[in-house]
Structures are given as C-alpha cells and as structure tokens.
Amino acid sequence: MKCCLAARKTRVVYATLRHADAVMKTSYPLPRIPVCKRFHLLEIKGDISVPDIRDVAQRAGCSIATVSRALNSPRQVRPQTLARVQAAVAELKFRPNAIGRQLRGERTGLIGVMLPTLGNPVFADCIEGIEAALGGTGQRLVLVTTRYDPERERNAIETLLQQRVDGLLLTLADAESNPLLDDLAAERVPFQLLYNDAQIRPAVSVDNRLAAADGVKMLIDAGHRDIAMISGALHASDRAKRRYLGYCDAMTMAGLSPRPALEIDFNAGARAAHVREALAQRTDAAWCPTALFCSNDLLALGVMRALRESGLRIPDDMSILGFDGLAFGELLSPTLATVSQPSVDIGRHAALRLLDQIAGRTDGGRALILPHAVRMGGTVKCRARAGAGVTPDYVA
Amino acid sequence: MKCCLAARKTRVVYATLRHADAVMKTSYPLPRIPVCKRFHLLEIKGDISVPDIRDVAQRAGCSIATVSRALNSPRQVRPQTLARVQAAVAELKFRPNAIGRQLRGERTGLIGVMLPTLGNPVFADCIEGIEAALGGTGQRLVLVTTRYDPERERNAIETLLQQRVDGLLLTLADAESNPLLDDLAAERVPFQLLYNDAQIRPAVSVDNRLAAADGVKMLIDAGHRDIAMISGALHASDRAKRRYLGYCDAMTMAGLSPRPALEIDFNAGARAAHVREALAQRTDAAWCPTALFCSNDLLALGVMRALRESGLRIPDDMSILGFDGLAFGELLSPTLATVSQPSVDIGRHAALRLLDQIAGRTDGGRALILPHAVRMGGTVKCRARAGAGVTPDYVA
DNA sequence: ATGAAAGCGCTAACAT
DNA sequence: ATGTTAGCGCTTTCAT
C-alpha cells in the first residue's frame, strides 16, 4: 500500500508541475488535478497536497477503516489507536472530504432552499427560521432564488436534485397548477412548501384567503365601503389569488361589491410609475375607493410612496392595508396596518417537518396552517360610524 | 457488464426490502442504501431506483464514456449515438449526479457564503448581488449565518471547506485580528471578504472610517456640536471600530471632542431597554448630545423607537444618523439620514472577483473600496448657524 | 479491535 | 467515434 500511496502522491505532485511529460507516462491514468487536491498544491517541500484518509492512516500506522471509525464512531477503536489517529489528523490538518462521504453514504446533509427573492424581508426572515431549526443538525443550506420565474424554478429544482439534497424547502410562484410538485412527489423527494398554501401538499403557511378576509373585514369594520385590492400579477402568484378571494369573501359577506384587482407587475422595476397608472384607472372610473388592500407589505410601501408623490395623504385621503407583517411596517409613521404572517415560524416549522420527513418519521403530511394576525396601524383611518356596532379588538 | 449491472440493481432492491438476509449473502459488500438511490426505492415494478450513467449506457447501447461525452461535449459523439443517448436519458429520467462529478473533477461549483445574519437587509441585498453575478455560471450557493459569533464562524468555515467549496465569500465579525484569514490564505483557499475593510485582504467594502467621518461631518455642518456615537459591541465588529474612528476624525477635525462610544449589545434581544440604559448614562452626565450617530441603520431604528418611547422627538430633541443606506430608511418619516453603502454591488463585485480568483485569473487582489454616499434625511435637524459657511450638497 | 476490499457515479487518459 | 479502465475519498461488510 505504501508504494501505491507514493505513486498517487507523485502523480499529483507532477500534475501540478504543468503536467511534466516524462512523468505522466509513469502512471495511468493521469487525471486533472482533482477537487480534493486543489489547495496547497504548489508547495513542493514536505507534505504535499491536501491530505486524505490514507495519509492519516499511514501516519497513524493503521488502516483507513480504522481512521474512518476513529472519526465516526470513536468508541469502536482502542483509546491508544484513537489517540494516534487524532494526532495524525491534527498534524496533517486533515479535513474529511464531505463529497466522498456523500457519494458513499445515504444522505448528503444538504437542504435545498428555493425562494423568489431575498429582497423581501419575509423570505430573509424565513431563512433565519430555517437555520434556527437546522441548528445543531449539521445540515447545510443550498440556496437559490428564482424571481418568481417558473423557468428558473424548474432549473433550480433540477440543480438541487442533481446535487442530491436530502430535501427541499421551496416557495413557488404558483404551487396550485404546478406539475413540478407532482414530479417531486412521484420521485419521493422530501419537500415542504413555504408560504404556498396548496392544501393537499406538504406545506407550511397561513390561510391566505382567510387572513386576507380578516384584514379586509377590519377595513370594513373601520367604516370603509369602497375598498380596492392591488396586487402583483395575479396569475403568477397563488398567494395573491387567494388573498384576492379573501378580499372578495369579506366584501361579499358585508354586502359590498368586490372589484377586479388592480394588477401591478412586481418584477418590473418602475414600480411607482405602475402604481400611478393603476391609480389613474381608478380615478377615471366613477368609483373611488377609500381604502387599498395591498397583496403584500413591500407593494404597500411602494403604493404609499406613489400616493404621496401624487399629493394624497395617508390615511386621510386613502387608507392602506398590507400583508406580511414586516417589522419595518411598525416603524413607519403612520405605522403600516397589515395582516401579519409568522415568517420565522414558517421557516422553522417547515424545516422541522422536513427533517422528520427525511428521517422517515413522517410522510411530510399535508398543509400546516399557522395563525395569522391582523395588525391595526395608522395607515387605516377609522371612518367611525355608529351603525356598524362594536369595533372589535385586533391583535397587535 | 450486463450481469454486473443486474447484480448491482438486485442488491439495491433487496437492500430496501429490510435487508433480507438470504439475499444479503449473495453479494459483497452490501452497503447501506446510497444517497443516489434514495428515491423511488420501494417501487418494485419496472425500473427501480435512480438511474445512473450505466443504466443510460445500457439503454443506449453504448459505453458510459460515450454517455459522459454526450452529456458534456455532445459534438464529440456521432449524432445518431447522441440521439440514442438523449432518448435513454429522457426515458430513464436520468439526472447526472453532481456528487460523482465533484468527487472526480477539479471543482465543485459550490460557493460558500458566510454572513452574520439575514435579519439585516444589508446582507440579504448582498446575496442578491452575489446571485446576480453568479447568474449563468452554474455555481451554487451554500449559505451559513453566524450571528457575529466567532465560534460559529470557525465552524462554518470548516464545514464549507469540508464541502470543498470552490471559494468563500464572507463577512467576519472582526477580520482584523482574525487568524482564520491567515489560515485560509496559507491554504490557498480563494476567498473575498464582504464589508470587512481589512486593507491587506481580498475584500470588497466601503472605506468605513472615511464614510463615517463624512457622515459625522455632515452633522457638524448641519450645526451640531455635541454628537455621540452609539454602536453594537465595539470589540466585536471591525466596522463599528472603524466607524468610530471616523467619528473621532470628523470631531477632531472640527475642533470638537469625540466621546466614548455608547455600546449596546447587538445580540441581546432587549434592544429598547439597552438603548434607554445607554441614554440614561448620557442624561446623568453633564454632557448632552444633540445628535446620535448610530453604527448601522437597524440600530438607528431601534434607537429612534426607544427615544420616542421616552418622549423625545426626532429630530427636534435629537438628530439621528445611521449607516448602511437601507432602502426602508427612505420610507420613514422623517426619512432616515444615513451613510449608504452599495450592498448589492459589494456582493456582485466580490462574487466576480472570486470567480476570477477561482479561475486563476487573479490572486484575489487587495481591498476593493466602493464609493459610499451620505444621504441626508429628515432625522437630522439643521441647527442653522450663519457661521458655518456654505452648506454642502449631499448626495441623495 | 483492526484490516482488506468493494464500490458510490462520474470523468478522462489511453487504446482501439 | 467509442470502449476500457483507474481512481477521486470515503464507509461498511466481512474476515481476522
């Protein structure tokens, strides 16, 4: 084995020396410098290249099997041997190669996370929750963002599966009609959706429809009658769709007429312009809302800015309700009224469920609906009317 | 080869069937179900387990080398053969195993990203920039957060290196005294720092000291004389330290006395309480600032909230200057004055530099300093005094 | 308690 | 243009 080892080393060393021809012939085949030997390669004195388990074994005077055991189940090896191995590991600065382990083992310890963007703090918070749950488990996160682009979603999932992640945590633009999920289910890939509330899927979310309805009901209770909803492209987001349904529910329930949603292309940069355009539509019509339900907080912020630029005051000329519960909303003045969802918990629970699923303890389950909360705020004006009865208390 | 293939399949199938003893004996060794065979395992009809390159080869009637070539350099194979391989790939839903490739190849296509937290939008923005730069290159992100904890930093780097990432993008709590960086450099691991401006390192950042000085100078120009700086634990963050130096520079330059920084433990949850405590210190002293320079925007927001809870008005009773340039700051009223740094660009440039470095086109270089900008805002009151001369225009 | 060896999926050198 | 084969680093089975 010793000579074999030496040969291996020799090859690698010469490989670094610009593939010196004479030496290349001496061994077969001569691969390109492999990933595991990338660092240190040009130091020709003493120990060369990144040490592997065989180097450790040689140094400790035992077999690679023993080294492996010393690393993974130390109690299986004699204390004396263990000490020698540990010494060798330290001296060589041996760093176990996760790739070798992953190729051999039944798990990679990788979790694929796919989100639309990190520009929305909702998703950043969610990752914090995921990391918190993964905490000590030693799982690593592979992160991809998709910008709500179905094409990118498909590619990203494919990439993550090629990387053999143990499971996926994902937010799709639209989970309802998405064949990708059937594929994942058919392939038995453990996954949990985040935010998408497709009931039949393993998912962690709020009940978007109900939450939106609760929010709009709050507006109605505050005396508003003409309420419009504004959202990103409805067809592209199942959450927007559900929230729109919730808006309709609340309006209908109160005997009011829901209006078509004002759609704003989220991905287009010129947000303020689009908002003004949508508002122009509104102005043209005979109908004039006193309150705007925005399908998410980021949109609400953009809308508020656009309204102010148009000279409208909030909430006097227009009340605003968002959705998400961004912490920043509370720092605004007036504070942003919003329907808040527990982003950190969504991430945390999804990660925990995924771990259970990966471990085979569950099959992933169905949708887990977490509680939402309507957060009153200064962006909503109470058009106090005696007729409406008791004003309910909303959760802060 | 055919029988060999069959044997392999058989083994795997039976392995899923709870390690049926009689069959276990027939082949050697019988590994645990490897990672690549995790999905589909329990379907006993038809094709079983995840296909590998040999399955494709068999189906296409060629060798695995040909399949590999068809996948990686299609023009090297005869169109007819290529078609057969592609058909086989499609029929079997073959998904190349990145782990095998990584083990064999000289690169993993993995980029390790280590950041303190995603709770601060600065870092989320930075990731957006990184992703934008990585765009089409097919590199994947492995993400770890450290909560400014040196212990976690060490572990995270070790984990990422075990995963054989091609390079690292990282923000350290304190890069200056950090031996980890020497280790990385010694091991020839390509890396770029984000935000840390340790000049001798490969890093992308603003000049924190100068930027802070510019910000404080703005305060001085606005007529403030008693200016305090408030920050997270100074010893834990090189940026906070440099920004404090910048504060001192500007004060001294104007003939004013810099004060010791009011330190607030960032990681401790009870932020408002800590702020009040720090302010109490201030009140006890004879000295009373009219302006507060906060070492980052998130801190500024917390401070503002605490001040308001204490009944102080901003900017009338106290002016506030932040650092970071969070987009949210512009939505507040009053808008947050801040020293903005180009987070997205920091991420983008660092990623680009890292790619060059990985490709061997550069050695990583030294610090790249990007331009900062002082953003005036409503949180700063102009104590207009005729004596100060011309009021400069600050970049919006 | 330890060692020998097979093989995870893939790529590339060499041979044909 | 295609096939054969070694081997990347590791874990685990079986044998000792």
Automatic annotation (TrEMBL), chains A, B:
GO MF terms, alphabetically ordered: DNA-binding transcription factor activity; transcription cis-regulatory region binding
Alphabetical list of CDD domains matching this protein: HTH_LacI
One protein family per Pfam: LacI
Residue ranges occupied by any HTH lacI-type domain in the UniProt entry: 51-105
Keyword terms, alphabetized: DNA-binding, Transcription, Transcription regulation
SUPFAM superfamilies: lambda repressor-like DNA-binding domains (SSF47413), Periplasmic binding protein-like I (SSF53822)
Membrane-crossing residue ranges in chain numbering: none
Top-level taxon in the UniProt lineage: Bacteria
Record-given protein name: LacI family transcriptional regulator
Organism field: Pandoraea terrae
